């Protein structure tokens, strides 16, 4: 296959917004502008999901989307451009990129007004969209946090546009 593949991840469960399900519409709108033959979509549960005592809202759905994203990525040849819903949509894609390249060879530029460095204990809302970067750094929450070759080293991270940590 020549050219990039596109992976649409219409995840909304990590958002703390009351309008989170509108992220599905946004992902669908973007999908409509992508070449159909090279575009794939991660199945996202319709249900919100349960926290399962983790301190992370909708944890069960977030794990399901992470697993489904990993499965889709395993089928695609790079490069893959991922687009999607809330901030948690990039969890599995960044983990995949880190594991696929030699240690220290991937840099992540995190464009977000917030650091997304909360965890399941420090988060005031329990919404995963504020924990994604902490999970990529391998700290918390268990079940979503990176480990081994898919763990982001802080030296590989650049925060851009951040106004609140």
Radius of gyration from the alpha-carbon trace, in angstroms: 15 Å
Helix fraction, binned, reads 25-40%
Please write the string of helix (H) and strand (E) elements.
EHEHEHEHE
Query: CATH superfamily name?
Result: Ureohydrolase domain
3D structure, described in words:
There is one protein chain. The chain is of the alpha/beta class and 165 residues long. It has one domain: Ureohydrolase domain (Arginase, Chain A, 3-Layer(aba) Sandwich). The protein is 26% helix and 13% strand. The protein has helices at 22-32, 59-75, 91-100, 132-136, and strands spanning 5-9, 39-41, 80-84, 108-111, 157-160. The chain has a 3-stranded parallel β-sheet. It has a two-stranded parallel sheet with strand order 4-5. Helix 2 (59-75) crosses helix 3. The mean pLDDT is 96.
Produce the secondary structure layout.
Blueprint: E1 5-9, H1 22-32, E2 39-41, H2 59-75, E3 80-84, H3 91-100, E4 108-111, H4 132-136, E5 157-160
Helix pairs in contact: 2-3
Which short descriptors sum up this protein?
26% helix, alpha/beta, 13% strand, three-stranded parallel β-sheet
């Amino acid at each position: 296959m020549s050219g990039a593949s596109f992976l649409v991840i219409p995840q909304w469960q990590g958002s703390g917004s009351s309008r989170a399900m509108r992220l599905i519409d946004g992902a669908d709108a973007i999908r409509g502008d992508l070449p159909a033959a090279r575009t794939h979509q991660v199945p996202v549960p319709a249900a919100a999901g349960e926290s399962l005592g983790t301190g992370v809202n909708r944890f069960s759905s977030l794990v399901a989307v992470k697993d489904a994203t990993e499965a889709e990525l395993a089928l695609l040849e790079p490069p893959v451009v991922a687009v999607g819903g809330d901030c948690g949509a990039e969890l599995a894609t960044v983990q995949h990129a880190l594991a696929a390249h030699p240690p220290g060879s991937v840099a992540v530029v995190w464009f977000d007004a917030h650091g997304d460095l909360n965890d399941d204990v420090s988060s005031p809302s329990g919404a995963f969209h504020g924990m994604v970067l902490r999970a990529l750094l391998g700290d918390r929450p268990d079940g979503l946090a990176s480990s081994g070759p898919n763990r982001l080293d802080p030296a590989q991270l650049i925060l851009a546009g951040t106004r609140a940590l």
